[in-house]
Amino acid sequence: MKNRELTMGQAIVQFLTQQYVERDGIERAFFAGMFGIFGHGNVAGIGQALHQYSNVFRFYQTRNEQSMVHTAAAYAKMSNRLSAFACTTSIGPGATNMLTGAAGATINRLPVLLLPGDIFSTRLVAPVLQQLESPDSQDFSVNDCFKPVSRYWDRINRPEQIITALPEAMRVLTSQAETGTVTLALPQDVQAEAFHYPEQLFEKRIYTIPRPRADANLLNRAVQWISNSERPLIIAGGGVIYSEATEQLAKFAEQTGIPVGETFAGKGSLRYDHPQNLGAIGATGTPGANIAARETDLVIAIGTRLSDFTTASKTAFQNPNVRFIAINIAEFDAAKHAALPLVADARVTLSELSDAIGTYRINGDYATQIENCRDAWDEEVERLFHLDHQPLPSQSEVIGVVNEFSRPEDVVVCAAGSLPGDLHKLWRTRNPKQFHLEYGYSCMGYEIAGGLGIKMADPTRDVYVLVGDGSYLMLAQEIITSIQEGYKLIIVLINNDGHSSIGGLSQATGAQGFATRFRYRDDDTGELKGDILPVDLAVNAKSLGANVIEATTTQSLKAALQKARESDRTTVVKIDVDFDTRVPQYESWWDVPVAEVSEVDTAKQAYQAYKEAKQKERYFLG
User: Fold this and answer.
1) What is the pTM of this model?
2) Which of 165, 247, 327, 543 is the most buried (most CB within 10 A)?
């Protein structure tokens, strides 16, 4: 057996260059490169290896450890989880800065490989700089924090341990059911140690991404349930898009007439103008989708984990006889709501259902209801897109301008605040990859970093990053990386001088918008009710190297977007909007606990409304 003497860092990089995936006969390299920031915990190990192999494995210099993980996750999502990035950091704060991104990737089921530096395995010089000591164990470091947010975690204390650890990492990363964050904690001394690795470790490996079929008996039962249903409803989740099943979904919906409601991750499963598309569903859903959910006797959940937003905190489905069919690659998700579990690939299963369903079609009254709901919603969207709100435009008007200006192949990205809910309702999606929302973790700061990952995955598309001032202030540094690497973003910075989303939620729960505006402290009351803070985010963006255009009206916003499209580098279009004008909630509810006792009248009133709404929550036990 031939061996190759390499440091552990060199061996890891060499291994990553030889990992490939294949689905439907199409082969591609799994790793597109590595993001990183160097410190004493990785510069001489992984850093030296990346320098040595820079001609075969690309390294990208980022500005923030959290944001690089967001960029990696967005890249993986845009690539339908068939390609990924690795991320390396030094020990200590560099490593733990990745925790938020790691949690987001795992919650959203997106493959990301993290390679944080770790403390010395020899322990001779302990405690080293940035080491967290424990009186209970010497085999302990801050990297243990990654265990609950990783799908696979390992600490590599000897260089030969990667011979077994790396294949396990790849098993998880390439599993459509189990994927998420994989963390390999790399002690800084072991990274630089040499070992005679077997040559086979560095041979090309191809991981086939299968399309498993559902159990035949369960599939037949699903066909019977659908055939006997009077008001079936499809919930399309992200799995529809990841499995590239959008055409099969359209065919099945057209064949049967069954309407479709889309989750955040599933928006784009059908074009917005498809006759069976009722739009967004759940707490941020449309009236049509939520009325259909309330009345349905059969939910066909495809590629969704049925989060509380999708189920309106278990209040969406009020028919006492409702049943669930779940088509999901993950057994864990397929079993939710006591569903009939079709643990299988969405594309294959939808094709088989189309073949087996025969002449079944929903009745005429239900079809008329769907059509009427769609027509009414189109009118409502037009109203919200053209409010002509004064003196500042509304957020819905800004969304309308961007939606109408962008092309079908372009991508909108967002993550947190009131924007995601408004986009979920209002954005008219014309392409399966046009709508990119990180809402499994709803992580403020994801937007710009995520936009970079999307652009890297497909540079042919324009990427519109919609970000509020609250999220922008948390994490804007990857503007610099986008300029350094030549990946142009169009960032629409929507400023309302505060946290409007939480402001509205605070009011709804009786807290009167407490501490949600960016204001000076009032000397007399001691509260944050003074003048608005004089923050100029346009100047900040310009200082990071972006081209900056300020708009004041919807008309000037259109002109600014045209200039941004023509620009050759990342451009920030900043516009102020009204803080209080919000898109309504339609036929839905979200469980946010309210104080059971209070001396404040608004909180008392909010609790009474909360108690009434909570009575609609249901268990689904089959």
Assistant:
1) 0.97
2) 327
